[in-house]
Amino acid sequence: MTAQLIDGNALSKTLRADVAVRAAALTARGHQPGLAVVLVGDNPASEVYVRNKVKACHDNGLHSVMDRFPATLAEHELLAHIAKLNADPAIHGILVQLPLPAHIDSHKVIEAIAPEKDVDGFHVANAGALMTGKPLFRPCTPYGVMKMFEAHGIGLQGANAVVIGRSNIVGKPMALLLLEAGATVTICHSKTRDIGHHTRAADVIVAATGRRNILTADMVKPGATVIDVGMNRNEEGKLCGDVDFAGVREVAGYITPVPGGVGPMTITMLLVNTIEAAERAAQA
Ligand code: NAP
């Protein structure tokens, strides 16, 4: 069996077309959705992510500002800038690109973002809302994965789901969204004794560790759905995921490629969250 590919680029295109329609409708009513992306320092990977996010906004009719600061920026100056964005009616979403320089407490910075503008969904108020089943914003990467299940009619109710990774950004919210959808969820992490024992019983596996080949064909039940969130570089410097793609695709029912899988969905869901924030603000 060769797995069916879940194409994140194609699904993103469809979802972004809907974003553009909603952005145009809001703009026509005088409420153009706006996203502020804040970058501190000159981490090259962060620069690429930020540029892609700003471009995606422009391509789909959202207003976007990119606020760049040197790595020497003091924490209190960053907090003051966020307070300004919180009060700006043209800005509906605020994203602070992580990681921040070591002298800045990223937890403090995220908590300074107004929860109704926290389009990444990382603020404790939004994490708590997600946990209680009443999410305001779903964190973009797991939200994108949920859209992939939906688009391919992959049933989650009663499914055994395994999430490998327990970060606040991907693993934990992914597990909560799967739970909300009715799956029986197991979370594996670096201390899990035998990951394969769990994954072999899974209908759905989401790998989000940043470790190459964390999931191999012998760990996958035939026909299972495998979602690869990981972003790594192989020996040749090429982008690859956490999953042994060549082996696992011969066993799985559905699989996401890297690149072209979850990556484009993350930016798409950032646009969706910003539109939702702007629609709420327009109603208020
Ligand atoms: P993270 O904060 O470093 O968390 C990694 C998680 O993986 C941790 O929970 C860790 O367990 C677990 N882990 C590490 N080694 C493991 C092992 N050998 N066996 C089992 N679990 C292991 O990373 P993250 O932010 O969640 O990101 C994970 C990956 O997804 C990275 O490659 C990142 O670049 C990628 N990512 C991609 C997108 C996208 O749009 N495609 C978005 C976000 C992240 P412990 O908690 O026990 O340490």
UniProtKB/TrEMBL annotation:
Its EC number is 1.5.1.5, 3.5.4.9. Gene3D superfamilies: Leucine Dehydrogenase, chain A, domain 1 (3.40.50.10860), NAD(P)-binding Rossmann-like Domain (3.40.50.720). Keywords: Amino-acid biosynthesis, Histidine biosynthesis, Hydrolase, Methionine biosynthesis, Multifunctional enzyme, NADP, One-carbon metabolism, Oxidoreductase, Purine biosynthesis. One of its GO terms (molecular function) is methylenetetrahydrofolate dehydrogenase (NADP+) activity. PROSITE patterns: THF_DHG_CYH_1, THF_DHG_CYH_2. The keyword Hydrolase applies. GO terms for biological process: L-histidine biosynthetic process; methionine biosynthetic process; purine nucleotide biosynthetic process; tetrahydrofolate interconversion. Residues 139-281 form the Tetrahydrofolate dehydrogenase/cyclohydrolase NAD(P)-binding domain. One of its GO terms (cellular component) is cytosol. It catalyses: (6R)-5,10-methenyltetrahydrofolate + H2O = (6R)-10-formyltetrahydrofolate + H(+); (6R)-5,10-methylene-5,6,7,8-tetrahydrofolate + NADP(+) = (6R)-5,10-methenyltetrahydrofolate + NADPH. Pathway: One-carbon metabolism; tetrahydrofolate interconversion. NADP(+) binds at residues 165-167. HAMAP family: THF_DHG_CYH (MF_01576). Homodimer. Catalyzes the oxidation of 5,10-methylenetetrahydrofolate to 5,10-methenyltetrahydrofolate and then the hydrolysis of 5,10-methenyltetrahydrofolate to 10-formyltetrahydrofolate. Belongs to the tetrahydrofolate dehydrogenase/cyclohydrolase family. This is Bifunctional protein FolD.
